Structures are given as C-alpha cells and as structure tokens.
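Predict the 3D structure for this chain.
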Amino acid sequence: MDTNEIATPEPQLVLHPVARRGRFVPRNIYELRLDELEGWCHDRGEATYRARQLYRGVYQQLATGYDEIQVLPKRLRDALAEDVPFAALTPIHEISTDDGETLKVLYQTADGQTLETVLMFYSDRATVCVSCQVGCAVGCSFCATGLMGLQRNLSAGEMVAQVVDMARRARDKGRPLTNLVMMGMGEPFHNYDNVMKMVAILHDPMGMGFGARRITISTSGVVPFIDKLATEPWQVNLAVSIHAGDDELRSELVPLNQRWPLAELIGAIRRYIKITGRRVSFEYAMLNGVNTRDDDARQLARRLRGLLCHVNLIPYNPTPAYPYERPGKDVIERFAAILRDAGIPATVRYSRGVEIAAACGQLHVEHAATLRAGADSASGSLDD
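Done. Predicted structure below.
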C-alpha cells in the first residue's frame, strides 16, 4: 500500500448539543510549540533565546507561573502574563487510594467543562493517563465516559497541562514522570491533530523531552488514523481497544465496529506493523460472562494470529451505571492461558484505583450527579 495515498478523512461525529453552540478556543502557554513562542518573542522585539528560557521554565522547572521563571526579565514576564495566560486547567477535586499509589484529579477548563486525569505509581515508573476529549462519541457499552456524549475536543494545551500538573505531583513525591497513556476520556483519533501537537510539545528536547516510546496512544479502532499514525515521525506506541474477537459481540460493546469491522481493523494493524516494525498492544476489558468464555479467548487468538502484538487483559472496573461485573481470578487466568497456548502473549492488568472511581469517566459522572442533586435541592427549597 502506498502510504502517500492513505485517505484520512475527518471522522463524522455526532456532537452533543453543547458542542454545537460555538467553538471554544483555549489560550494559554501550553498551546504553543517552541517555534511559535520564538515567533511571539520576535514579533515583540525580544531575542528568540528568551523563548527557549521560557520553555525550560515551563517544562523542566515545572513553574506554576511566569514570576517563577526569574531568568526572564520582568518586562517579558509582564507581557506574557497579559498576552498568554499561564493556567489552562483548574483542579477542582482530587482523590487518592489509601496507599497513595493512584491519584485521580478532576479539572475544570476555562469554559467550565470538566475532565479527569489519573496518576499511577509503580515500582519502576510513574504513568499519567490523559484525557483527550470532554466526553466521547464512541459510546462503548461499558464505559462511563460514553454516558456524557461528546461535549468537545480538548486542545493540545489542555492535554499538555494535564501532563505538566501530574509531573509536578510526581516530583513532589520524589518520582519522575516516566510514561504517558492516552487512555482517559475520549477517542484520541477523533482529536488527531491536537493529540499530535501535544506529542510534539512534550517531545521537544528543549522542554520535557518526553520520549515518544514512552507515549502510548489508544484507539477504539478508527482505521484511517491507524494508517496515518504509521507515517508520523514519532515512534509512539499504539494500543487498540478490541474487547471481542467476533464482530457481533464487538459491535455491541464498541459501536464503532459497525463502521470499521474487525477485518478492516486487523488489516490496518497489519499495515501499521509492516510500516513501523512496532508491536501493537490490544486492550481487552474482561466483562464476566459476556466476553470471558473459552470460545471468546479462542476467537481472539485466531484474530490476532501472526501479528506482532501483546494482549492486556483488564478485569472490568465496575461502573454503577452498567450491569457488568468483574470475572473471578480463575476465569481470568484460564482466558490468559488459552491465549498464551495459542502463541499470543498476554498479561493480566488489574485496574488501579477501583475504590476511587478511577475507571474512565467515573469521577466526572459522579461530580455531575452531585451538581445536579445540589441544583435540584436548591430548586426544591425555592418551591417550598
């Protein structure tokens, strides 16, 4: 296949009514690449090396405001504060596990939307799970984010700001932030350009210098953008949320499968592997009695045979809005054994932070419900 001829049409999304009322354009320091900051400095008669000093202050020093970047002259700090707001997100609620190894933060954007980000500490790494949209249009049948519909895409800066804030929090615990996964709220390939700009900003050696191979982008299966990702200069990791090995069941769990069924999805992944030479991870949420039977494992193994891949089996993180349950350990281990016996590498990855609603979208949904309850209570008081 000629990669120069890959068609990459913008996905046709059904927008939530809020998203139709007008596009919000964020403005903050995290939106700007280094070359854009150099242009800003040049236009104001400042030496372009000031942009590099600023970048190091923002992404290496992890400053929380311009006044902390003392290497910059006060006139420049004042001009920046007036022209380019520093903050992109405001943390409004956070919760952590008792052991402190998982932290979830609910942020508010400048236009009042909310999104969530998770920081997870392991023995050898610290990983941030980043959201790319407020809500999601895919509507997976087991995901709390799908209950919201799609409100809007997050900007590159709103994604970068999540990473920077979590890097500060990790630093405060004496741990460097080492890994980034795009597995929070939203479908990254429905916000492709902003996600790629986020990667460019974080990867810049003048800034965080975040290694592309420590970044994983997860998709529910937007085929044209799998092809497009294969041609990008950054060697990021690709993860695919598969959840079933047959089309009928996968279409129930992941409605996007009706647009790009498994044959097309696997075909795109084969092309991706051929072009990049990189292994693909498959994410498989284990829903007890739904996709955890022996036949489900065998069907999945047949689909993935011959691929350079790895399967992450993720026992379901229960969500009150859905009836699905987490399977028992014996079911999980049997499923994994069937895959391994078929030559498919598989790892069981238990969800972190079950007690703090760390599954995708849960904290946002609970926060929204609390606000609605408060509004209803206030309305009831006025009616009395």
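Residues 362-383 form the longest helix (22 residues).
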